[in-house]
């Protein structure tokens, strides 16, 4: 009888927690509703993955396009964000010796100028036009040391490659052992610049590990940096475990506080090398910062924040991550905090957010979204100045 009562209590607790989660989700959806100004529903064919990892936004006149690299067809699909349909497809060169067989990322300057990058190297990157013809192929000098020649650039999401003042700016991730605290030092630079005219590669000095990070052990997946650039030429970096943004212009580096209301505890490193479960537990449970985005249309910055999640070693990490709430900190051009808007977990994909003419675009291709369908990618569009 006692065991029966315990089981009943557990079931009741489960349903109470489930009801509370549903109520919280409903409340958050109501709170973000005033900022939602529209949506775009992209129609996907059978060859198009709904993951939409390698994308680039382009505005042309009154039209908005989202370019997506389709690995199966070896094409760049140009989606019209107004109609949701593919406007046209660009067959990019993928056969040797000039083509790129495996694509790491794309950066579209216009519909007629699209950079395509290969993994682990800048050498061999190409620029194509809307017909898929190669306009230029970039071949910086080879390093004698193979290890030094490897550039583990990301080139998508909050670590996209940007063109600024004749430089392609790449965010790279370390290839060394990040659990060795001696490796976490000021020598490694996360941003690598390639000058299109001089054909030279150099590192951005202000993109190294902040002093707070150095000589410590951090969760492996959180050893990364996000970056954006505003119309004034300021380069803005966001670190996962730093409340301030790092702002660089003309060699002058400043810190601008951009703290979330949902991060109360101090960030703490591991005291010893973690095992796989300990590493993942910290990744899921720790509230932290993710991306930083500049809205040139409103002269605002958006900093995304992942809230603390619940870890269970028997569950799939991607799913535990997917149900976490997140928020968007809205900052003015002087980095003053205007507001912070919270979004419910299990709907939007924080890793695929981008900025466009209408505001902040959040795809709903979260793996835990119960309304997810394979042939439609829904994107909600938010204007955080809508109530101002």
Structure description:
It is globular, with a radius of gyration of 22 Å. The chain is built from four helices and 24 strands. The longest helix is centred in the first third of the chain and has 31 residues, at 2-32. The strands form six sheets. A four-stranded antiparallel β-sheet has the order 1-24-23-22, with no helix packed on it. The chain has a four-stranded antiparallel β-sheet with strand order 2-3-4-5, with no helix packed on it. The N and C termini lie far apart (60 Å). It has a single domain, classed as Neuraminidase. By secondary structure, the chain is mostly beta strands.
Features:
single chain; 388 residues; mainly beta; Neuraminidase; four-stranded antiparallel beta sheet; 35% strand
CATH class descriptor: Mainly Beta
Strand content: 25-35%
User: Quick check: average pLDDT?
Assistant: 93
Q: Spatial order of the strands in the main sheet?
A: 1-24-23-22
Stated plainly, the CATH topology is called Neuraminidase
What overall form do the CA principal axes indicate?
A: globular
Low-confidence stretches: 9-20
Helix content: 10-25%
Domain count: the total is 1
CATH architecture annotation name:
6 Propeller
Structural class: mainly beta
Number of discrete helical segments: 4
* Largest sheet: number of strands, sense, barrel closure: 4 strands, antiparallel
How would you briefly describe this protein structure?
With 388 residues, the chain is mainly β. 13% of the residues lie in helices and 35% in strands.
